[in-house]
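Exercise 7. Given the components listed, write out the predicted structure of the assembled complex. Treat all entries as one system.
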Amino acid sequence: MKAGIVVFPGINRERDMVIALERSTGRKPRMIWHRETDLFGLDLVVIPGGFSYGDYLRCGAMAAHSPVMEAIREHAARGGYILGVCNGFQILVEAGLLPGALLRNASLRFLSSDCWLRVERTDTPFARNYARGAVFRSAMAHGDGNYFADDATLDRLEGEGLVAFRYVSPEGAVTAPANRNGSARNIAGIYSPDLRVLGLMPHAEDLVDPLMGGIDGKPLFDALAALAV
Amino acid sequence: MKATVTVMLKAGVLDPQGKAIGQALRNLGFSGVGEVRAGKVIELELAEADPAAARAQAEDMARRLLANMVIESFRVEVAG
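Answer.
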């Protein structure tokens, strides 16, 4: 499995993503500068978190129109896998590779805390190493993570099984207090219709080693290790 | 031409910033303040000299970058 990590100016979580990918795949991911346009040979493209272009205009808006994005679209079109985390998720929705938008947190506060995610389905390239209905701990660190889409889009996402993860209580209940950023229907992550693109707001890469305080996020990266286009 | 693009969240999209501004105004004693919505104004200097063409250009820019049509609407004003 060959992975690449896209780096935009202002991205700051790419090294954590290197650690998570290298630990699970056994090989160093390729670092892709935002001006590069050749992603040939990659199975997985990861857009990590951070503050691309200083979050100017809207989070992810500038990055969504940078040269590498055309290559990422082509990668998606030929069946390549894409993971966008935090700012990476914001960039994927701004680029139209996933539906909806990520609004300012309902509280207007930057949220930096643990959260719990429920795995909504396990028959996907990203979640197949989790148990069905499993709840795992993750870390959120964002100011704009409030997932929004119109009702028709939300109904379609639910109907087609494209909700990947939801914010839940540690016991797995979908509650308002567990949904700290105010996301529609507690949505924390969504898939593309072919299940090859995942946008996820919390940082699964923050928990991949006991020294980090847990390995709750590791099954996601272990699953990625076996992917091939 | 100078084009001014005003970008606002669509009706129905929660605007917590507007709500917070409204609350702060009420705290200052402006008791008659109802709903407050916050948006962005972007001013563009365009080489285009024809008002209709300048407007069309600014609208295209708004649709492709300045506004996110999933959550926002925009209006364009053009002045010589």
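Discussion: The first strand of chain A starts at residue 3 and ends at 7. The longest helix of chain A spans residues 14-25.
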